[in-house]
Amino acid sequence: MTSRTIWVLGDQLNRDIGALGTADPSRDRVLLIESDALLSGQPYHRQRLHFVIASMRRFGGELAAAGFAVDHRSASTFGEGVAAHRKEYGDPIIATEPNGREMRSLLDRLGVEQVRSNQFLTHPDEFADWAGDRPRLRMEDFYRWQRRRLGYLMDGDEPAGGRWNYDAENRQPPPRSERPWPPPPLSRLDELDREVIAALPPTAVGADPVGWWATSRRAALNRLRHFVDRVLPMFGPHEDAMLSDNWHLAHSMLSPYLNVGLLLPGEVCDRVEDAYREGRVPIASAEGFIRQVIGWREFIWGIYWRYPDQRDANALGNDQPLPPAFAGTAPTDMECVSSTLADLDERSWVHHIPRLMVLANVANLFGVEPGAVHDWMRQRFVDAANWVMGPNVMGMGMWADGGLMSTKPYVSGGAYINRMSDYCRGCRFDPKKRVGDDACPFTTLYWDFLDRHREVLGTNHRVARQYATLDRLSDLEELRERAALVIGRFGDGEL
């Protein structure tokens, strides 16, 4: 006889998370709700929607096979779904703490009891204790605290290999010819996949799924195994490189599964630690990846809960609308932007450097309103989540928080993209030029960005050298004119 309902949200799809960890099929019913308002209210990428919906449905099937009574329903809103379930089954309804503020507030209003989540390795309360009254929160300090606390890659009290950080070895430009990285696995689409794809809302954008993204716990574990065994040994050196003919390089592509619970961070790091201890993975690769999971990912999670108003931040006063190239209504001649947007349309994913140094960079240089970039990325990326978007997009990508996440904006001219990619070889713009019809828009607008935001950034010691160079430019007036022209053309879909 079931006596309570456990409401499982679409980003908590694991038997070991929160309330499900102690669930008993003889006592507990499971509620899954697909909200029409959430799924069709915005132009989400088709592969993002398919990934979430198909993963939920497979998880519901797995719970049913394990003996749980599962009420998997579609409803106009979450509130209507809960009300309909209550009318049929009554109370109590409990849930694991949601991973976003809006859902936690909604559950409070709906009278749903919340139990503590263990989906991350660091609960927001633990992050708050670590942060204390520190004047500045540095990820490196947090990461070392995590290593000591969790024990990953530690030899007693010292870091394995004698160093905490091998990041300096993981910033090499792309190799000139060799492409050693194996292609990611593909999942075969089945009848469930086809049903989900056929029912996607007309507001959905992007290419149809072809199997890039696993939608079951078993398939996600296979992706983890593939990464650790075949990709992780070469992870690291070209981590920041971008290539027009290789979209995945040695990246794990595990973030979607971590973000919805198909994989848990502890088990991922355990696999990596084991591979290092067995001599199958070099320390630089193991450390670089574990730093991303227990360091950067958990740091972003903690920052999200500590600072609640990131979505509306706009320290630089950017006010331009989202450009037509981002909306898919006009092409662009900037090869790096065009190639990245094409990859995003095809797979709902690009790795962290195209996100930061192409998409966010060009948006910031052109003065796009940061909230519009936040919402667009949340709609387009398969691994998007509100807790990720705030610190990553508003903080690092757009510097909208005024330096909370990074002491200087992550903007660059064409030289960085030319050094770290092969995009510039086929582009009509010259990354070395800042003025003229063939001047790279990134190069033009990098210097114009500094000029525009001198009042905010002029006293920032991290960009003092760049301002000294700006003050020596003999063509600053011509550069300003060129910048105004390219901003207008990009905004009109003519660049």
CATH fold call of the largest domain: DNA Cyclobutane Dipyrimidine Photolyase, subunit A, domain 3
Note the total helix count: 21
Low-confidence stretches: none
Q: By CATH's scheme, which homologous superfamily of the largest domain applies? A: DNA Cyclobutane Dipyrimidine Photolyase, subunit A, domain 3
Over the alpha carbons, how many angstroms does the gyration radius reach? 23 Å
User: Mean pLDDT, as a whole number?
Assistant: 95
Give the H and E element order: EEHHEHEHEHHEEHHHHHHHHHHHHHHH
CATH class descriptor of the largest domain: Mainly Alpha
Q: What topology emerges from the helices and strands here?
A:
Layout: E1 4-7, E2 28-35, H1 36-40, H2 46-65, E3 69-75, H3 78-89, E4 93-96, H4 101-109, E5 113-115, H5 124-131, H6 139-150, E6 154-155, E7 158-159, H7 191-198, H8 217-231, H9 255-260, H10 265-277, H11 283-306, H12 324-327, H13 335-347, H14 352-365, H15 370-380, H16 386-397, H17 414-420, H18 441-452, H19 454-457, H20 464-470, H21 476-491
Helix pairs in contact: 2-7, 6-11, 8-10, 10-11, 11-16, 13-14, 14-18, 15-16, 18-21
Outline the structure in words.
- With 495 residues, this protein is of the alpha/beta class.
- The protein has three domains: 4-115, HUPs (Rossmann fold, 3-Layer(aba) Sandwich); 124-198 and 210-306, Serine Threonine Protein Phosphatase 5, Tetratricopeptide repeat (Alpha Horseshoe), CATH 1.25.40.80; 312-491, Orthogonal Bundle (DNA Cyclobutane Dipyrimidine Photolyase, subunit A, domain 3).
- It has helices at 36-40, 46-65, 78-89, 101-109, 124-131, 139-150, 191-198, 217-231, 255-260, 265-277, 283-306, 324-327, 335-347, 352-365, 370-380, 386-397, 414-420, 441-452, 454-457, 464-470, 476-491; strands at residues 4-7, 28-35, 69-75, 93-96, 113-115, 154-155, 158-159.
- A five-stranded parallel β-sheet has the order 3-2-1-4-5, with helices on both faces.
- α11 crosses α16, α15 crosses α16 (386-397) and α18 crosses α21 (476-491).
- The chain starts with a strand and ends with a helix.
- The mean pLDDT is 95.
